[in-house]
């Protein structure tokens, strides 16, 4: 796996269906294969679907983001073949979550580093308002 190049042509304004919807709103769940997401957009996928995807594509691990994880990162499923990495500490100045980054060396050994927000972000929104997502 020397070089990976993926080109996608998406209409970003069509976020309720299609490829963009699938990428943004499809989340891992403790199931085997697939089921519709209760969000009303995207799907939930399980361990068997992940293992099959990795096998078909010659992968050992899928790294993803776009889902808040309180601990900063989370390995999913018994095979730990999917990880969610969340890099925004104290998301929206109110979630109190840890954040993380993942790094790989030349042998593809991985290391996850976690970090917290700066104290100022807990008291000063800097004019920003938290979105309705958390109400």
Explain the overall architecture.
With 135 residues, this protein is an alpha/beta fold. The chain has a domain at 64-124. Helices cover 16% and strands 23% of the residues. It is built from three helices and eight strands. The protein has helices spanning 18-25, 47-56, 120-123, and strands at residues 27-28, 34-36, 43-45, 62-64, 73-76, 82-85, 99-104, 110-115. The strands form three sheets. Strands 1-3-2 form a three-stranded mixed β-sheet. The chain has a three-stranded mixed β-sheet with strand order 4-6-5. Strands 7-8 form a two-stranded antiparallel sheet. Strand 5 and strand 6 (82-85) form a beta hairpin.
Runs in which pLDDT lies below 50 for 5 or more consecutive residues are none
User: In DSSP terms, counting alpha (H) and pi (I) runs of 4 or more, how many helices?
Assistant: 3
Listing every helix as H and every strand as E from the N terminus to the C terminus, the arrangement reads HEEEHEEEEEH
Helix content: 10-25%
Q: What is the CA-atom radius of gyration, in angstroms? A: 17 Å
The shape, in one word, is globular
Strand tally is 8
Q: Name the strands of the widest sheet in spatial order.
A: 1-3-2
- Average pLDDT reading: 83
Assign the structural class, choosing from mainly alpha, mainly beta, alpha/beta, alpha+beta, or little secondary structure.
Answer: alpha/beta
Strand content: 15-25%
What is the first-to-last residue Cα distance? 43 Å
Largest sheet: 3 strands, mixed
